[in-house]
Amino acid sequence: MGKNLAQSKVTFYFCDGGSCRKAGSEAAIRKARAHLRNKGLWDESHTIKTKCNGRCEDAPTWIVQSGDYWYKEVDPGKAIRIIDAHCDHQQPLAPELIFREGQAKVNSEKEPPPVATPVFQRAQDEELGEVYKARGFHSDQYLYAFFLYLQENPGETELSLPNGTSFPFNDLRFVDYTDMYRLKLHFGKDEEAIIELVTALVPKTEPDELIKRKVTVCEHFIQIATDRKVIRLKDKMGRLVTSLQIAATDEKTWEYCLEIQLNNAVAPKVTLGA
Ligand code: FES
User: Fold this and answer.
1) What is the Å distance from ligand 1's center to 109 Cα?
2) What is the C-alpha separation between 17 and 201, in angstroms, rounded?
3) 40, 132, 158, 267: which one has the fewest Cβ atoms less than 10 Å from its Cβ?
4) What are the pLDDT digits (tens) for 14-51?
5) 249-267: per-residue pLDDT in tens?
6) CATH number of 10-99
7) DSSP 67
8) β-strands 45-50, 10-15 pairing
């Protein structure tokens, strides 16, 4: 039955993502809901199960609103104490907070290290010859953002398939990421070509062929002889899925790659004819 939101004074967001479940979130959630009902607080409160809150290292996590209070390692005993603090005293359970509105730093001993910035290394490539090479991020959070960027800012970039066919991003009509696992690039106006990439995490329960097609490598290259930039995507089996060619003159796209796709990486300068 729908909740009367006008009556609700406090909302508990229980993380129900994979890590929190593994860490026993369900026991605390059940206890919390039963406690709210028995205290006669059901109509004055709202409880919502969420997907991953992005703090798996502190699982199981809860967020309490208003006030943006984040809790860590919530077990059934702590669940009761959190509810009583918020509902009886309108106060957070301060020692158990990882974060609250206005706090400058997260209070967790399990704070993960910041995302590393890829570093360019000099290497010899079979196709490009002498290159600088950096391994980028291959998750769909990066790749989907990249293709959306290229749709709006095609620059002088084009996509090539292993069979040699190429598609300029100027011809990209739209990026469709409504499928569970596959991202589809629609090129061309009249004769449409659809390039399909498996970019989302594919669970082991899905067919093997789909699991093997997941993009798991994203490499950025600078060809030293030409200053041309190339990005290669490969699947789980090491097979080339597609490559993106960025013209040496297309500085804007390359700057975007360094800043967003490579987390502010510094690219070596290439002097042509040196
Ligand atoms: S699964 Fe709960 S924070 Fe990630």
Assistant:
1) 16
2) 15
3) 40
4) 999 999 999 999 999 999 999 999 999 999 999 999 99
5) 899 999 999 999 999 999 9
6) 3.40.30.10
7) T
8) parallel
Residues in Cβ contact with 54 at an 8 Å cutoff, skipping those fewer than 6 apart: none
Neighbours of 54 (CB within 10 A): 9
Q: Specify the pTM.
A: 0.81
Q: Is the pLDDT of residue 274 over 70?
A: no
Tens-place pLDDT, residues 107-121: 888 888 888 999 999
Instruction: Out of 29, 48, 50, 56, give the residue to mutate to test ligand 1, the one with the largest number of ligand atoms within 8 Å of its CB.
Output: 56
> Domain ranges in the chain?
10-99, 121-261
Query: What is the SS3 assignment for 179?
Result: coil
- Tokens 């910035």: give the residue: 117
Q: Which residue has the tokens 């995507």?
A: 233
Amino acid at 48: I
Q: Is 242 in the pocket of ligand 1 (CB under 6 A)?
A: no
> Which atom of ligand 1 is the closest one to the Cα of 58?
3
Q: 164 by DSSP, 3-state: which?
A: coil
Beta bridge partners, 148, equal none
What class does CATH assign to 121-261? alpha beta
